[in-house]
Amino acid sequence: MSNENFFFQAFVYLAAAVITVPISKRLGLGSVLGYLIAGVVIGPFGLRLVGQEGEEVMHFAEFGVVMMLFLVGLQLQPELLWRMRVPILGLGGLQMIANVVLLSGLGMMLGLSWQPALAIGLILPLSSTAIGVQTLTERGLMKTEGGQSAFSILLFQAVAVIPILALLPLLSTNPVAAVSHTATSSNTLAGWQQTLLVMSTVGGIVVGGRFLMRPVFRFIAITRLREIFTATALLLVVGITLAMQAVGLSPALGTFVAGVVLAESEYRHELMSTVEPFQSLLLGLFFLSVGASIDFNLILGQPLLIFGLIIGVSLLKSGVLIGLGKLFKLDWNQRILFAFALVQGDEFAFVLFSFAAQSKVLSENLAGSLIAVVALSMLLSPLFMIAYDRLVAPRFISQSDEREADEIDDNENSVIIAGFGRFGQIVGRLLIANGYPITVLEHRPAQIDLLRRFGWKVFYGDASRIELLYAAGAEQAKLLVVAIDDSEQILEIVKLARKHFPQLKILARAIDRSHAYELIRLRVDAIQRETFGSALDMGVDALKLLGVRSYKAHRAAQTFKQHDEEALSEMAFVKDDHSALMARSRQLTEMLEQILQSDEREANHEVDRAWDILAQQTETN
Amino acid sequence: MGKPNRILILFAHPALEKSRINRQLIKAVRGMDYITIRDLYEQYPNFHINVKLEQELLLAHDIIVFQHPFYWYSSPAILKEWQDLVLEHDFAYGNNGTALHGKKFLSAITTGGSEEAYCRQGHNYFTIRELLAPFEQTARLCGMEYLPPFVIHGTHQLREAHQLARYVDHYRSAIAMFRDNMIEWEQLLQHKHLNHYLEQVINKLESPLHVQ
Description:
By secondary structure, chain A is mostly helical. Chain A contains 28 helices and 6 strands. In chain A, helix 24 links the parallel strand 5 (505-510) and strand 6. In chain A, helix 3 (53-74) runs antiparallel to helix 13 (268-293) and helix 5 (85-109) packs antiparallel against helix 6. The longest helix of chain A has 33 residues, at 191-223. In chain B, helix 1 packs parallel to helix 7 (161-179). Chain B contains 9 helices and 6 strands. Chain B has helices spanning 21-29, 40-43, 51-59, 77-86, 128-131, 133-141, 161-179, 185-189, 194-204; strands at residues 7-11, 35-39, 63-69, 104-110, 145-146, 150-152. The interface between A and B is small, with 11 and 10 residues.
């Protein structure tokens, strides 16, 4: 590909995405469908702007799926994964078995011999992780029961691909061809050596992720070079991909494992926010190339067969899923949700069908038709989700509202504390002591090390970057406590958070009085001047040492505080006219003195006498 | 019917999150027209009561309600603090202290003990009306008319939802009737407890009373 050609291609893909995706999103069709349609438009059956190299692009763009699994892994701590073992093995396993039996049976009934029927039965049940996760996340349904169940199945399938790949050549009706093909992946190694290699690679990812990556990221973080941090994150993902390919495993699985391992590290949120933009773009590119690869000649040649297959397979798959949902006691709407989210075929099916054709398990023609079926089902799947949004979800609204409280543990906390120095720590400790889990962001690696040694779960990152706030779960969080010590940055974070997360209540540390004014003008929900509380307490100590009784000193401080806070919020809106500010300030101080001292004078006589007078009066009555 | 009475409910419960009954009661009257609720522990967690504001609120209402659980034969501490600070000389009592004259005063309390426990033979010895004497006299001293109290007894035995619902209903009805002047005041004062009067009225109406 010449340079010029490369830029032309890039221009075509980007332009197609930029034009189609926003329109599709506007129309409520979601981004996936937008990309797919854009792909069809620029593809060989549309404007013919991309031709053969579309396939190459697809292979490259599959890397987006790899990155997506890395991100998904980052959101799943090992313990959470362990808690999901029942749905993963149960739902995932049963889904696979039921579909294999039904689809192979169907294939044999249609006159296929058992080998190709079984191959089809193994490949068609797979559902696209890219589409499933993307559509669910886009609608905020990932954390619902149905979303989690769908994800469990996708996870099981990601692992199941490996044995399927190994099994396909054995189904070959032409053993010679099959042997010659399998030889490419494991020609020089015996079975046990291969197994050992696989085990040590995955083990290496786990151990390396746990013990090696943290010091590396720490070293990079100290340099404070953002682009090097990005480069390191990408290097990690690319490296794992190469390693996994070298031993013949799914790269997506490898990065998923790495993601899970790193989910517990302090760099989790920073990694998420760094990799995310690359992942989204590549995934978009992937959907584009899928759209471009749909072979309409093949479809138009045998429309009845193709559409019959799509409808039959979709019905079967969703039927199995709905049945399983009942078995696993999901609500009706959740059952439909996860069935609809998994109706489509898997991008991996393209690879598997081509491989099956090469291994002579399936005829070229049959494999081609099946690939078209999978591609079309991907095109149709967003329509299922739209049907869910329009037809199913509205009927269950009241029910899902009630269920909100026992939503599956969403792994992100409802309180985010930015800055965990002497100020943030006190806030955080009080919250934790009361059973409110917090997510802590801190940008000094040394401080993080110290806190982690004390068992605090702290994440590295600069909270004034909006991506990091997203990664920390600010969209779902209730509170953001801004407790860093840089007054400019505090204002910056407050403004950003206000703009992007209108639901978030913001509590901010005010460094001094003028900073407090600015925060008040930004309508922050709660402000505390960083030294006010302790200074006031010391004032009480001083009064007590001067002989004032402790309760009176305490009350005086309370009055002072109330008065001062009222003055603060009033003065915040006095325009920046310095002399007016000074005058009003002096006036308010005088008022306060009057209040505090008048209390004293009055106390002596009148009230006591009043009690006496009244006592006399009531007696005479 | 005339002008509706504005009602100020001074509510004191130091652990509302653990309360079963008071939470229901206050929920039932929240948001009603002409009703103002002051959740004192929420408003003044450090007991630093804003005297001026509280006095203004008193002036703006016709009926004052103390709603609280009955702690040690009295109110939770903050309500006593409120009395000590807000009912100032020359405001609530004294030669010039006529701000509350002509208003009505109601105690709405919940007790753990059963009704039978509050009599000479019971282990609390005194009756509720006797134990509420300081509140009654406070009202008298401030020139307010003291109404028979609304009392929910035996809160520990109130396990069933429908039992509780009946009391909550009665409380809401009572507040609405006070507001809309639908009370036979003379007749009400004949009763020891507001509850007895309510039961009579509500039984007479046969069908359950529905007030918006």
